[in-house]
Amino acid sequence: MSNNNFKTFFCVDGLACMVQKAYESNRGKGARAFIESKGNHVRRCQKDKRGISCRGAHCEEEFKLKQHIKKFNNFDYKKLNLGLYYEAIYQVLNENLGKVQDAELTKMLTRLKHLNFVELLQLWVKVCYWKSSEKKRGIKRNIKLWIDNPSKNIIEDHMWALERMTHMCSKHVEFEKKIGKGVTIRDTCLGGSNCKFGVHNIDELVNNSDLLTGVSDDTFTKEQYLQESNKIDLSIADLNSRIINMQSIINSNKKKDNKILKNKISKFNKIIFFKKRQKRHIPRTKHLTEGGLVPFSHFFKEKQKAVKEQQSKLDAAKNVSKKSRKIIKKPKF
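RE: above sequence
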């Protein structure tokens, strides 16, 4: 039996089988999601088949979230001060202006003052990846980009978890476009819900408009989401109730052959399993303000207000200084 405790990515064969099964259920039996060739066949994982532990997950239920993503998903967003993170990221990027030897990144860094929180966060991650790629090439860059400062409630891992949720994984998006039109099993992204290059499902994607302004641009409303979610919950409750009744009949008639009822219970359990997965993937973006997050615009307005107040105090101090000056007349000779 394979150990599921550390399956933080998908097995390429396991994922291919999942995709193929879903594709056939939508397009009909025999529809092919992949082009197959030597070494690129859709098949059951050979390690799993032989009872050898496979490092990759073969279904969503085996897949395990990385700790920093899990912690962020369960975090109390009321405590997430975007203003503090903005200032910390802005500071490290500003300190490294001129040190980044990449034309595209350098151009983006020149616009630092004009970037909103999401753009700044994404730029910071890109610069971090650039530094990492330079290190792999044997080039050491004297660039300090860490922002972790728990004493000030700045947890860097939260930003790594959040940044990937602000956009889709480009490799997965490209795969979704070309599925059934010329992709192989090697074109899949195995990162799943741990993918560091972006999310794979709409329900994992943060609504950036909501994060920045508190106003959502999602066409799938909260009311629609709750309606769909409640509908699935009622269906699951009904199926569970029917399973309990059938199990009660089986327990009271142990001498009889209850094969038909047992098959029905098995079938209903599979439907419940599918519906729970369906609920997890209701196509609505994540709205962090619904979890208590104060949108970035609030901090931006507060900062502007503080700057104006400070400027007013300076202006007032200058006026007082001018009035208190003594006018000394030059003696006449």
